[in-house]
Amino acid sequence: MKFAYRAFDKSGKVRSETIEAASPAEASEALRRQGLFVSEIGPASAAAAARGGGVAPIAKSASGVKGGSKNLASFLRQLAVLVKTGTPLVDAMQALEKQTTDEKWLSVLVGVRAKVEEGQTLSEAMMAYPRSFDSVCRSLVRAGEAGGNLGEMLTRLADLVRKQVKIKQQLVGAMVYPCVLMVVSVVVVLVMMVFVMPRFAGLFGSMDVPLPPTTKMLMAGSEFLLAYWWAVLLGVGGAVAGGVWWIRTPSGRYVVDGALVGLPQVGRLVRGLGTARFARLMGVLLESRVPMLESLELTRDASGNLRYAELMNKASELLQRGEPLSSAISGRGGLIDASVCEALKSGERSGQVGPVLSSMADFIEEQNEVVIKSLTSLVEPLILITLGVVVGLMATSMFMPLFDLTASAGGGGGGAP
Q1: pTM of the entire structure?
Q2: Could you list the residue range(s) of the whole structural domain that residue 35 is in?
Q3: What values do phi and psi take at 129, rounded to 5?
Q4: Do residues 112 and 126 lie in contact, with contact meaning Cβ atoms separated by under 8 Å?
Q5: Tens digits of per-residue pLDDT, 282-329?
Q6: Which of 71, 241, 293, 317 has the fewest CB atoms within 10 Å distance of its CB?
């Protein structure tokens, strides 16, 4: 079977081609051995397959709905309950379709159910919708099918997705108030520069008082904004668009991921989230009897950070040479917390690597919640202080000439006979 993929090499060059393999996991492994980082993979379209080794665009319209984590968690949990009670898989999916109000998600469920009715397994049917069911989801479902415990595996998978949704909600909730403060700060500064400062500039023009350098700078900035507002908008818009485009490139994303990991306070949170995600995914996969190398590959593809993906690629190579997982991930720039490596050593000695990683994931996720709250409590007053300082300096610069004029007028009146 041909699979279309997008990947990039160590230099950051993007490749979009097709590869012949029995499964997406086998295709990803073959590409990894070639030194490629796979960012997207799925069944090739008929046109792409006919071109053979040509560039194979992955059809987005047929790949499912992206970003439906809540829908996925609810679907998995309800499907697990129905499967555990002995409901046939097709009947269970039909029952869930009737409860679904999201039309896009409903189309995915209908497509999966149709493929199951054709004789495919649930994991095989999910392969047609890689944007809705990622490689980790499909692998766990496949493991449940092979072990005869699909219901239990669906429950475990639903818990995994639910925890991921919870972390995202915590991050979004922590960022809302700081973002609002930043927007308010920008609006306040713009209002003062565009509406308030021009009024003071007209007043200063009629005064025979020397202006402080800060006042002159504010007046010049206000005049520039009023005269060349279109250039400012184009410049800011172009910078934002260019930055977004660059961050989406493999080389840009690699640089940004590295910068985030290295930041003093934010880096601690990024490393904590990366370590927790690694421990959680590896723990669930290993407890589900997914082979170690395949678990590491799936965790790498779902890491969301190219620095962690690079770490897991190197760890996979070391594992193939016979090194244990604990030594394969230790060091490496401090991406994986040392406590995880030490716990892994104990798990390797006792043969309980999966449960140990799951326990460490619980512990690190609790720590991450504390870090998120502490960062939020630190960022909010910093933004308020910065806003107060900026507005205070602008107000002082605008009123200082008036104070000087009043002082000179008072001094002149006191000297008259």
Answers
A1: 0.70
A2: 2-51
A3: -130, 65
A4: yes
A5: 988 888 888 888 888 888 888 888 889 889 889 998 999 888 998 888
A6: 241
